[in-house]
Design a protein that fits this description.
Chain lengths: ~220, ~270
């Protein structure tokens, strides 16, 4: 079963990561579809409420550099950089001293997002080790995002088949259409609507699963 | 699970001894004693360079690349000065300057405003470095996109055959990365220690060299300095050593440079 809701999974992951590092905060930003922005979709700790939902350009800042370069990095004393402090202050009131950041790289090698740990207290005596741990967490998060996207595509395919049975000609064709690069805004909306339903709690998740099963049965009956 | 190419490969208890070619002794003196990096052109392919940063001490030229759908190959070149809105390129330039004070450093800005097309920007940066006859190219970035495997492989081979030394940060994430894993480049991972001239050779590549890159004081944007860790900071240490080496021994080929660095490695016997 797909994660009930991607953002909820990411939220759990950043909370756990923050705990492991005894950090002031931990956040995860995803690359927006256009590729020009990073949007914070999960955050835990100080400043979390302020940063959630905020978008920053990939051309700026440490998160942007990590997304662009694909390299994990640790930087300390960043608050000394007045421009950095100003950039951060624009989005959250908390300006960290130290940032650990690693890219979320998907199966195709594209960067799907960035995870950041702010002011970790539980550091090993080897910053390289800290970075290794965070890089592995980032790899797992990238897998979660990929699986979620797969389930969204599956759900969208089923819904599409249901919504437009005459045109689709079957589930396979719907899926092959979805394999194209541009699935279209309407399909994105359908997928996100389905995700919303699935993320609404255990009862809603059961409903979502039932919808999928019913659609599957309907499609099998038609073809 | 794939093991990430980490600095742990260079830990004293796991790093095997390698057999370096016999350089004239004392080897380090032979390699770069008295040299300054003068007349060696070093391109820093990164976020730009703050040329006014006191630790950078000026640069010899700068060029930026931007994604532009109207341009041939989808990339537009912008000549002239630019700034570094991140700080990373400035950090790399200052490290190179500290090892090769008279090297001619060029800023090649390839980190643009959009993640789409970043492979094309990396490629364009290397293309420019080849055409501009750079001697050393510092690349603290890489691509994991399979789409860029072949183009980056081809262009790094071209650089190799033209005697241009590409020094690339190893990627710490699992899975292949380009061009850092190609044999035509010098791939570098961060290694513990506070000696900027220390280098180690990993007998189990693709990551070949380890250099200082953990908890080090580096230049940053806004004229500031910060403390940082990453393979991306180890890379300019090696680029700086190569610049110094080439200023004393002009015309060394990439395979000769690798042999010298291996012979100078802490774990070479």
């Amino acid at each position: 079963m797909r994660p009930l809701a991607l953002d909820a999974e990411l939220q759990k992951a950043v909370a756990n990561t923050r705990s492991v590092f005894a950090a002031e905060a931990c956040s995860c930003a995803r690359v927006e579809p256009g590729g020009a922005q990073l949007r914070f979709v999960a955050a835990d700790g100080t400043g979390a409420d302020a940063i959630l939902g905020v978008s920053i350009p990939v051309s700026r800042g440490i998160a942007g550099w990590v997304a662009m370069s694909g390299q994990p990095i640790v930087v300390s004393d960043v608050a000394a950089d007045s421009r950095f402090a100003r950039d951060v202050a624009e989005s959250t009131s908390y300006v960290p001293e130290t940032i650990l950041a690693a890219p979320l790289v998907d199966m195709d090698g594209e960067v799907a997002g960035v995870i950041e740990v702010l002011d970790p207290q539980a550091r090993s005596d080897h910053s390289g080790h800290d970075l290794a741990v965070l890089a592995l967490v980032a790899t797992q998060l990238a897998s979660i995002i990929r699986l979620s996207a797969m389930y969204d595509a599956l759900g969208t395919g089923l819904l599409r088949t249901l919504a437009d049975p005459e045109r689709s000609g079957g589930f396979d064709e719907a899926l092959s259409q979805l394999a194209g690069e541009d699935t279209g805004v309407a399909l994105d909306d359908l997928a996100s609507a389905f995700r919303e339903v699935a993320g609404g709690g255990p009862a809603a998740a059961r409903l979502a699963e039932r919808i999928l099963r019913e659609i599957g049965a309907y499609v099998r009956g038609r073809v | 699970m794939t093991q990430p190419e980490w600095s742990s490969a260079f830990a004293a208890d796991v790093l095997d001894v390698v057999r370096g070619l016999p350089l004239p002794a004392p080897t380090r003196e032979w390699a770069w004693e008295g040299a300054t990096g003068a007349a060696v052109k070093v391109a820093v392919v990164d976020s730009g360079i703050d040329a006014d940063h006191p630790r950078v001490g000026g640069i010899s030229g700068s060029v930026a690349f931007e994604v532009n759908s109207d341009a041939p190959d989808g990339v537009r070149i912008v000549e002239g000065p630019h700034d570094d809105v991140v700080g990373h390129g400035t950090a790399c330039a200052a490290i190179i300057r500290s090892l090769a004070p008279e090297a001619e450093i060029y800023s090649v800005k390839v980190l643009g405003a959009n993640l789409k097309g970043k492979g094309a920007l990396f490629y364009a940066g290397i293309r420019w470095a080849i055409d501009a006859r750079m001697d050393v190219v510092n690349m603290s970035l890489s691509s994991k996109s399979s789409e860029w495997f072949a183009p980056l492989h081809e262009i790094t081979d071209e650089a190799y055959f033209r005697n241009i030394i590409l020094v690339c940060a190893a990627n710490n994430m699992p899975g292949p990365t380009y061009p850092s894993q190609f044999a035509s480049v010098l791939s570098v991972a961060a290694r513990e220690g506070d000696n900027s001239w220390a280098i180690a050779y990993n007998p189990n590549p693709p990551v070949e060299f380890g250099a200082r890159g953990i908890d080090i004081d580096v230049a940053w944007s806004g004229g500031e300095s910060i403390e940082a860790t990453g393979n991306s900071f180890a890379t300019p240490h090696v680029a700086g050593m190569v610049a110094r080496l080439l200023s004393k021994h002009p015309g060394l080929t990439p395979f000769q440079v690798k042999s010298v660095l291996q012979a100078l490695a802490d774990n070479a016997r």
